[in-house]
Amino acid sequence: MSLLSFEDVLAARDRIAPFARRTPVLTCSTIDAACGGRVAFKCENFQRTGSFKFRGATNAVGSLSSEERARGVYAHSSGNHAQALALAAKLHGIPAHVVMPEDSSPVKVEATRGYGARVAFCPPTDEGRREVAARVGEETGGVFVHPHDDPRVIAGQGTASCELIEEVGDLDLILVPVGGGGLLSGTLVAAKHLLPGVRVVGCEPAGANDAFRSLEAGRRITEFVPVTIADGLRTPLGENTFEILRALVDEIVVVPEGEILPSMRFVWERMKILVEPSSAVAVAPLLSGRVGASGRRVGVIVSGGNVDLRSAFEGES
Amino acid sequence: MSLLSFEDVLAARDRIAPFARRTPVLTCSTIDAACGGRVAFKCENFQRTGSFKFRGATNAVGSLSSEERARGVYAHSSGNHAQALALAAKLHGIPAHVVMPEDSSPVKVEATRGYGARVAFCPPTDEGRREVAARVGEETGGVFVHPHDDPRVIAGQGTASCELIEEVGDLDLILVPVGGGGLLSGTLVAAKHLLPGVRVVGCEPAGANDAFRSLEAGRRITEFVPVTIADGLRTPLGENTFEILRALVDEIVVVPEGEILPSMRFVWERMKILVEPSSAVAVAPLLSGRVGASGRRVGVIVSGGNVDLRSAFEGES
Q1: Looking at the complex, does the CB of residue B3 fall below 8 Å from at least one CB of chain A?
Q2: Of A86, A130, B24, B246, which is the most buried if we count CB atoms within 10 A?
Q3: 3-class state of residue A221 by DSSP
Q4: Shortest Cα–Cα distance, B197 to chain A (Å)
């Protein structure tokens, strides 16, 4: 893997240590009983800004030269990467610009601004986003930080599974949600080095199963309209993440859309933690039996907990 | 305090150690910033059966003589004590009977049965409950375990603050929700022994503020109709808990009903953990500034996470 080595993950670990939270690992006897295995949940929903994205963004920002720092960073994101990059930049004392679709949720725009980033709005299309991002890049001279295809970002995401394996020891199987593939790629590079026999499975929602289809076709499929409740997993694989998955992933499991919210609810009710639909995609195969976990030691990377609670509190005065 | 000493809490600790979970202590930088203190949350929402009640029930069951064990235990409860006692009895291999109001939520009835208890229904009145409980007691010959006034239960609840203090060290202030007063009493006995200078504050919803009024009146007020969203805090103080509070508590803070759900939502969104409305009652005074936390080290006992999620998932297929 020339793009990225385990040493890059180790370097990321040192780089993000002063900033990122070492998130807890939880267990749930009900889920163990349901799947017949012993499952350890690495809870990145407790990470700063509410998702694993803070690891990659912090590693990218921390990797900049002093000349680059002066120019700042920019990105496009309507979701967790926006907040993660904003806070990472703030903690390093450098400017950040984030391009967000003009129909982004006001809550996310406010959160991104709250972390000190400047927000530029774009039309909610690929073309509009590219145009506005290009303009922001020209105007600010900032360094672009891609949400999942930047090797510094991928190395940062790999630190979550390092911590998990350090805490629980040997694992037979690791389940990771896959959207753009940054978290899965980082997990593959780290876990396959630390535990050469581990099976790493990407979990993808049926309504955005481009990773499954891309690996089957042997080429990256990017032209599709995602229709999934798992809003963090709508993006296609990047060029780099596709190459890493092609080389290292054991399997992509496609999760029916109808299993995602019930799995999320199960985790809320039984584990008493808030996880977002994207995270539930990596739990669903344990509850449905779609991956064999019986008698196995399983790790799940719980990617984040940024969920819109408005409907839950609609009756609130 | 003749009812209960710190030694009883220590004995409870050993007794429940093989069964209860040592729950995590979490922090939240947003809440620290909001109140100006440093707050440690002892997360009993992660306790088995989803609340601190498992500690007291397990200590009560574990304290039985072998002759008493053969007869089993019984209680009345529509809430967390029912499930806690059911599981505690199951883990000790003894029978449990729980009297529940016939309008109890089917989810809670199922959970109680799921832990192996027999459920007897009663009319949803004080008299009906007493009648059915008396009949169950006669028929089974079991040992009655009161949800909050049994000294074995109170001693068990005190173990949560022991663990908290052991983990975080010195504290200036501890906030605890108060309904029947079992958790607050146990906390008082344990914390005032371990940290003689600590201030322990009970937090009570405005719609069921009998502890506040009872302490003010110098006598236990039991005749009132609770109207509070905090369903775990509707019960009046018991005779024993009233005596312990009268001797040891520093203050009862009354929380306006309108602050409870927003505080609960704040915890869900910011800490990514599910807490029930009763737990939010001990967080609200930090957010409203009703207790001065600035510059102080604060502990909060997060009592439980058993919340009805139906409304949150109404749109679910």
Answers
A1: no
A2: A86
A3: coil
A4: 31
